[in-house]
Design brief:
single chain; 237 residues; alpha+beta; Immunoglobulin-like; 2 domains; three-stranded mixed β-sheet; elongated
Amino acid sequence: MAVKKKNQPGSNQEKNRSGANKLFDMLNPNSMLNNAQKVISSAVNVLEEEIAAGIIAAKKIEKKVINVEEIRDDSQNLMNRIRRDTHEALDIFLDALAALSKQIGLLTESVGKEKGTVTKPAAAAPGTPNPLQIIEHDGTVSPGQEVTLSLLLSDDSIKKPVKLDLQKSDFTGPGDKRIPSGQIRVKPVSLVLKPGEEKEIAISVTLPKNCQAGHYNSLLTIPQMPAVKIILCFEVK
């Protein structure tokens, strides 16, 4: 079962990539930069873990042989000043590594966008219809106005004509406000769909004059095809 908004063009099928294209993708700058980012990020993590482990071990030994508190209380001691400078230098070094990793990540994303190679969520396989469809009214409407939503219904999988009934439900809006299904008109409410045929369905509703502003949604179902759900939407200004 296929449902789409009237005059809405269908999506083009994704073209298959050749083996040469796949090899090029493996060697493209986006992939190489991404690998470099992973290496640097791993190096930063390993360095941080090793430094932390070394510091903990050294502190345990230090406290056994040295009066740590007495030495560190002397702010004018040469080694205390060196300690502060060393900490600052180490912070700068780690910050530089983190910044480099971040910049490579941004560069990877930028190159991907420029070349159109940014990974996108996998699309549904061509020819596999989505059982959940959303039909939204263009623009906003005002209280008291009539709203009409049109859709095209087809099903390439059927081998013989099938009778379909359309069941409407209340429109629900902000604050659980409702427009009763009795004010909704579906034409036709019942139809016979033939293989390869496309039928237009019109859904109209007259809004109450005191209709509250916000988004309203309704569910249109087909008992003969329980998996198919059509969500109707419009916005009242």
